[in-house]
Design goal:
The complex is a heterodimer of chains A (805) and B (237). Chain A has 805 residues and is α/β, with parallel strands linked by helices. Helices cover 41% and strands 16% of the residues of chain A. In chain A, the strands form 5 sheets. Chain A has a 7-stranded parallel sheet, sandwiched between helices. Chain A has a 6-stranded parallel sheet with strand order 8-13-12-9-11-10, sandwiched between helices. Chain A has a 6-stranded mixed sheet with strand order 25-21-22-24-23-26. The longest helix of chain A has 17 residues. Chain A is globular, with a radius of gyration of 27 Å. Chain A starts with 6 loop residues before the first helix and ends in a 5-residue tail after the last helix. By secondary structure, chain B is α/β, with parallel strands linked by helices. Chain B is 18% helix and 28% strand. Classes of the chains: A alpha/beta (805), B alpha/beta (237).
């Protein structure tokens, strides 16, 4: 059935000299479909395609209340879409109210939106989850016809997506005829994404847009070779500035916030032409981000140094070049970043890669090959996590009494939870109600109670405030706000990680928002700084997101390493690899290279497993446990996508016992219970499931006076000892195996190497190991070695202070 | 430096041993001292509408105390206050915990020093008092501003860090001694916090509880910029 556009739309398109894209027409034609997924490259007019049916349906002004809910993973995207929708709506004079609702929306505006919802509400998964938790949710969503999930490919990989799909299940229960629309970038398996979007077991219709011309992508040629090690791409600054000057708007992507800050700092120092350049990343204060966003929309900036916070489909002005600094880790991510350039449908996107060190040259080459070959990385979609389900149950209870059977049926309409068993669901419900402990201790203080009529409700309705405050599944590393110190309380600059703040002493300087500031002290969880920066900045080490290089990309890298010579690589990199082959060996896909060497007073072991960062970290934990048992006194390790480097007090004589598959598996079993990664995973799940409250209502915190905290590690240890089969321990094991632990890729590595281990003992650091010494994210090992180091340090401190026993 | 069995502390005339298990042993008097057990903490959190945390901490705290009593066979056990998270928590103590406590109390003197969390007397046997003086050493919950004699106290849950490792700590200047918290669900306050360091005379030191007991000058303990290591489950100070 062909649906013509209403007249005002045709006039508007004509006036702009536009014709409707085939996929936009397709979306209109199939507007009645209960579930529709559009797969289109960036710049394909995807958002307009998603909204056209809504605008058409609302154009006669007869609809009262909320009509379309738009959900995007980014707050900035919601604000951007609002701007972009306003233009056609205003120019056509359509009677449509559009508002956004995110964590940044004021409390007054939020309240008004609940009382009088706009026609189109733009929001995030977290804000939507909160909306469904209000008692008046049925009234808010009374007129809802369509829900549009933007960038669904990004949400599909995360717990935010799981939470969103549970919220959609809720909405479909409230509005049985609700139509779902998903907008996705190019993905390997659209049907799988569609399966998540659709109300299970409904089918999904998929609309494919023309993928457009192939991107124009190359390595940036620089006068200086990249350094042996480290990140940030500082060496390439002259060439980057040159490119910025020659393009209209350039986005300069970095993999971490710290790298973005450092690069921006040095870019400014070298910016003799005073080109207007801004910085944008998730750790900056909202005011700072908004300023940059506004300047960008107004076309005032020649370049923006950014991170993943600009990763998704924000349509910012005339971007005609994307520069990726550092290896992209994942081909799909690279393709999406490249898509940022040239938002005109039929022009190829232009991108340049800047490897930060010589290993990344190899990675960038592998990624380039993959883009040209058109191979994306597939994602495995896993069953819906139960910590998210626990939070959903609590939020449901906030909205009012619920029936467990009905909620179970509703939850199973979310694709990821379609296979959820009643037993598994009941365990979550029991956890929410009583804590779910083997020892029934809280019968008097249950969180959820069952009424005589079988309905579940909150024992104390006031608990709803705390539950809502702790909603969400985004696990920020613990961060502290940074403010300029003055009498008025100070301007917020952004955030740094607690672990970084812990390394600061007054007088230290660091970079934030592109400026160097001086650490003055800590006041009530706020880092106070001044502009009196008189020293070279300390590196700001926000962790950012660490992506593991995908299996496919790793395979390509190993193929490159296996070549006899490297005519395609720059001479310096080829020479570096040749040197590695000469002094040690080259890692191979079918063998495990292990190097051991002394350096800087410590004994080092480097294992090149190429299993991705998370699996290499797991390998590090198992290795160090085994080394502790062998009396090698390991002190710590660091893991990258391709290797694990361990340092300790005693040299490794024989690598074979460390890496036999059965030894690793056995080590894994015993190790899994009591390690730092498990504790970190536990903490995240415990927060999501509502066992740990990150935020408490201000009235309660004020009452308590001096705040005392105890670590989530203690809860983990207690459960491990007294209640090891508790729901949260089960969830932690499930999560760890597929997330941070990534045992699957370790298994894949073990199968690949089949027990073939090459142990090379050397007297110094090898070329391939050198970059590992500059990696952030070193993990200390608490063992014999640590005790020896602490004892030695304490003696030095006592002697220095002139104190004796 | 002593390994495993503890670290010697001279307090006035008394010779004391800081034990790795966050307790104090006075060999000359055969007195075992523990501070801030916070029994019943999980119950109190739940009662006040907070999280339903694993309800095993009293069991765990008492099991560790029983181990110490079995190891040292004290004539007298002194609990330095905040033994219960509040009086209702003491009343709500499960029967097994009461039994375990009674077994530990049998055949020895037992003193409950009253703390700011558990100000009333407890119906569990033993003596309840604000202060106790033994052979010239005074035991109280919160260190007195102007203590004239050797004093042992608790309350602050001191913690100290050396080379990135943060541990529960004893703090002493030779006249005053502050014990770390013994309870399982207890956070800590850094020893460099003025609330603790302000009580100590120059030359004070912190003794870190752990597998290896080490002491460091209090002045060398720099405060971590972030205060307590994690930021949740607050509000029960």
């Amino acid at each position: 059935m062909l649906h013509a556009l209403p007249d005002p739309f045709l006039t508007w398109f004509n006036r702009r000299g536009w014709t409707i894209h085939p996929h936009q027409q397709d979306m209109l034609d199939r507007a009645a479909s209960p579930c529709l997924l559009l797969v289109a490259p960036t710049g394909g007019g995807k958002t307009l395609a998603g909204f056209l049916p809504t605008l058409a349906e609302l154009s006669d002004g007869s609809h009262a209340g909320l009509h379309t809910l738009y959900v995007s993973p980014l707050k900035a995207l919601a604000a951007d879409i609002k701007r972009n929708l306003r233009t056609p709506v205003d120019e056509m004079g359509l009677p449509i109210r559009i508002e956004d609702r995110t964590g940044d929306t004021t409390a007054t505006a939020k309240k008004r939106q609940r009382a009088d919802p706009p026609h189109i509400l733009l929001t995030t998964p977290e804000s939507l989850a909160l909306l469904t938790s209000y008692e008046d949710a049925p009234r808010i969503f009374a007129g809802l016809e369509r829900v549009i999930v933007d960038e669904i490919h990004a949400l599909a990989e995360s717990k935010r997506g799981d939470q969103l799909m549970l919220a959609l299940a809720r909405l479909s229960a409230l509005r049985p005829g609700l139509r779902r629309v998903g907008l996705s970038a190019t993905v390997e398996d659209p049907a799988r994404i569609g399966g998540l979007l659709a109300r299970h077991p409904d089918p999904v219709e998929i609309v494919h847009a023309d993928p457009g011309p192939a991107p124009d992508i190359a390595m940036l040629e620089t006068a200086h070779p990249p350094p042996w090690a480290g990140g940030g791409g500082r060496y390439a600054i002259p060439e980057v500035l040159d490119q910025v000057a020659r393009h209209k708007t350039t986005l300069i992507f970095h993999n971490t916030r710290a790298q973005a800050e450092i690069f921006f700092h040095h870019l400014w120092l070298a910016n003799e032409a005073s080109l207007p350049i801004g910085i944008h990343h998730g750790s900056l204060a909202r005011e700072a981000r908004e300023k940059v966003e506004a300047a960008m929309v107004a076309g005032e900036l020649k370049a923006i140094v950014c991170t993943g916070s600009l990763d998704l489909g924000i349509d910012w002005g005339d971007v005609d070049l994307v520069i990726q600094v550092g290896a992209p880790k994942n081909v799909k991510r690279l393709v999406q970043r490249i898509g940022r350039a040239n938002h005109r449908y039929n022009a190829p996107s232009k991108a340049l890669l800047v490897p930060a060190n010589r290993f990344e040259i190899v990675e960038c080459h592998a990624a380039l090959d993959a883009v040209r070959a058109g191979t994306l990385d597939g994602d495995t979609i896993l069953p819906g996590p139960r910590d998210v389900l626990c939070q959903h149950i609590l939020l449901t209870a906030c909205a009012g009494p619920f029936d467990a059977d009905a909620l179970f049926a509703e939850v199973r309409t979310a694709g990821a939870y379609a296979e959820l068993t009643r037993t598994a669901f009941d365990a979550c419900l029991d956890f929410c109600a009583t804590g779910g402990y083997a020892l029934r201790a809280y019968d008097k203080w249950q969180r959820l109670m069952q009424r005589a009529d079988g309905m579940w409700h909150l024992r104390d309705p006031r608990a709803a405030a705390a539950i809502r405050m702790n909603a969400g599944t985004i696990m920020d590393t613990d961060t502290l706000k940074v403010r300029l110190k003055n009498r008025m309380g100070g301007r917020p600059l952004g955030e740094v990680e607690e672990a970084f703040a812990a390394t600061l002493t007054p007088g230290d300087t660091f970079l934030i928002g592109g400026q160097t500031v001086r650490y003055e002290g800590l006041r009530e969880m706020t880092v106070e700084v001044t502009r009196r920066a008189d020293r070279e900045p300390k590196i700001a080490t926000f962790m950012g997101t660490k992506f593991a290089t995908s299996t496919k990309l790793t395979g390509r890298i190993l193929e490159i390493l296996a070549q006899d010579t490297w005519p395609d690589l720059p001479e310096h990199t080829a020479g570096w690899l040749a040197l590695q082959r000469k002094v040690s060996r080259m890692p191979r896909a079918d063998r495990l290279l292990v190097e051991s060497f002394p350096h800087d007073g410590r004994q080092h072991v480097c294992a090149y497993g190429f299993a991705g960062r998370n699996a290499q970290a797991t390998l590090g934990l198992i290795m160090t446990q085994r080394m502790e048992g062998l009396g090698l006194a390991p002190l710590g390790f660091v893991a990258t996508d391709y290797a694990t480097l361990v340092w300790g007090l005693e040299p490794l004589q024989d690598a074979a016992p460390l890496f036999q598959a059965d030894v690793l598996r056995e080590g894994f079993e015993t190790w899994l219970a009591g390690n730092a990664v498990m504790k970190r995973t536990f903490k995240a799940s415990a927060i999501i499931a509502g066992l740990i409250e990150r935020n408490i209502p201000r009235s309660a915190s004020r009452k308590s006076g001096r705040q005392q905290t105890f670590s989530s590690d203690i809860l983990y240890d207690t459960l491990l000892k007294y209640d090891p089969e508790h729901l949260l321990m089960q969830i932690t094991r499930e999560e760890a195996l597929r997330g941070l632990v990534d045992y699957g890729r370790l298994e894949e590595m073990m199968a690949r190497i089949g027990g073939r281990i090459d142990h090379v003992t050397l007297d110094r650091v090898t070329p391939l190991a050198a970059p590992l010494f500059l990696e952030p994210g070193r993990i200390p090992i608490e063992g014999e070695g640590r005790e020896r180091v602490i004892a030695a340090e304490a003696e030095i401190l006592m002697a220095a202070a002139g104190l004796t026993l | 430096m002593n390994v495993a069995e503890g670290h010697r502390i001279n307090l006035g005339r008394a010779v004391l041993t800081a034990l790795p298990q966050r307790a104090l042993w006075w060999a000359g008097m055969r007195v075992l001292v523990v501070s801030d057990l916070h029994l019943g903490k999980s119950e109190r959190m739940a009662r006040r509408g907070g999280s339903l945390v694993p309800p095993y901490e009293s069991q765990e705290t008492l099991a560790r105390l029983a181990d110490l009593i079995a190891r040292w066979d004290p004539l007298h056990v002194v609990c330095l206050g905040d033994s219960f998270d509040d009086n209702r928590a003491a009343e709500a103590l499960p029967p097994e915990a009461r039994t375990a406590l009674s077994a530990m109390m049998a055949g020895r003197r037992w003193t409950w020093i009253l703390g700011n969390h558990d100000p009333g007397p407890v119906a569990l046997g033993g003596d309840c008092t604000d202060e106790l003086v033994l052979d010239g050493v005074v035991f109280r919950h919160i260190a007195a501003r102007d203590a004239q004699v050797a004093e042992v106290s608790g309350h602050y849950h001191p913690k100290a860090g050396v080379r990135g490792s943060r541990r529960a700590a004893f703090v002493t200047d030779g006249r005053r001694l502050i014990l770390p918290a013994f309870g399982t669900y207890t956070g800590g306050l850094d020893v460099s916090d003025p609330a603790i360091s302000g009580l100590m005379a120059p030359g004070a030191r912190a003794i870190l509880a752990g597998r290896t007991m080490v002491q460091v000058p209090l002045a060398a303990c720099t405060r971590p910029a972030h205060g307590p290591p994690t930021r949740w489950a607050r509000g029960l100070g």
